[in-house]
Specification:
With about 130 residues, the chain is α+β, with helices and mostly antiparallel strands. The protein is built from one helix and eight strands.
Length: about 130
C-alpha cells in the first residue's frame, strides 16, 4: 500500500512540475472581422496583426505558422519570447481580384501547453 501511495505522490509531483515549467500565452485577439471592405485595386492587401503576451514561466517559441491557401502570407516573432514579453503574428491576405465573403484560418504551432493556436480573419470584399 505504501508503494502505491509513493507512486501516486511521485506522479502528482512530476505532473505539477512539468505543467509549471510550461509557458502559455494570452492573445490580444484571435479573430478579426473586417466587415465590409471596398478594394480599390488588384494589388491591395488586407493585413492583421495579432499580438500575445507570455504569461508563463518559460520562453515561448513559435515553431511554425501555417496558412491554408497561397493568398495568405504570414510573418511572426522568430526569437523566443521571454516571460512577460510580447510577440506577434502578422497575416496578410491578398484577395487577388476576388469579391465576396472570405474567412482565412492560420495555425500557429508553439511549445506551449496548448501546442496549436488558430487565428482567423474574415470579411466581405466588394471590388
Amino acid at each position: 500500500m505504501n508503494n502505491i501511495l509513493s507512486i501516486i505522490v511521485s506522479l502528482l509531483f512530476a505532473f505539477n512540475y512539468s505543467s509549471e515549467k510550461q509557458s502559455d500565452f494570452k492573445w490580444d485577439k484571435k479573430s478579426v472581422d473586417y466587415g465590409y471592405i471596398q478594394i480599390k485595386n488588384n494589388r491591395q492587401k488586407i493585413t492583421a496583426k495579432f499580438t500575445f503576451e507570455n504569461i508563463g514561466k518559460e520562453n515561448i517559441v513559435i515553431y511554425d505558422v501555417r496558412t491554408f491557401c497561397d493568398c495568405t502570407q504570414v510573418t511572426w516573432s522568430k526569437q523566443p519570447i521571454k516571460p512577460k514579453e510580447t510577440g506577434w503574428v502578422i497575416v496578410e491576405y491578398n484577395p487577388k481580384g476576388k469579391s465576396g465573403y472570405f474567412e482565412k484560418k492560420i495555425l500557429v504551432k508553439t511549445n506551449t501547453n496548448n501546442k496549436s493556436h488558430v487565428l482567423k480573419i474574415k470579411g466581405l470584399i466588394k471590388i
